[in-house]
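Hi F.,

I've been meaning to write this up properly since the lab meeting, where we talked about keeping a consistent format for the predictions we share between groups. The idea is simple: the sequence comes first, exactly as it goes in, then the structure tokens exactly as they come out, then a line or two of notes. No screenshots and no reformatting. I'm using this chain as the first example so we have something concrete to point to.
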Amino acid sequence: MDSAEKEISIKVTIGDRQYPLKIEASEEEYVRKAAKLINEKSKFYQENFQVKDKQDSLAMAALEFASELTGGSLKASNLSNLVDTKLREFTQLIDEAL
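Output, unedited:
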């Protein structure tokens, strides 16, 4: 099946603005969930930190999500490096024992 056949058009609302998107049909649930999370986090900043400007609360929400993703990527990368190092060490020990 051609990838264009799998594309659908949807509209999501973020910060009181509607955005038309063309996405893969399989991504719809994730895109809608992401828009909902952004709106919820934006509302959280407005209610708990007295952020009055909608753009500021959206920026804070974006910063929080990006920080989480970046931190998670760095942790995963560090873990991967640690596993690689340990595997090399174990391989060297096994080679020396043989």
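Notes:
Residues 54-97 form the longest helix (44 residues).
The mean pLDDT is 87.

If this format works for you, I'll send the rest the same way.

G.
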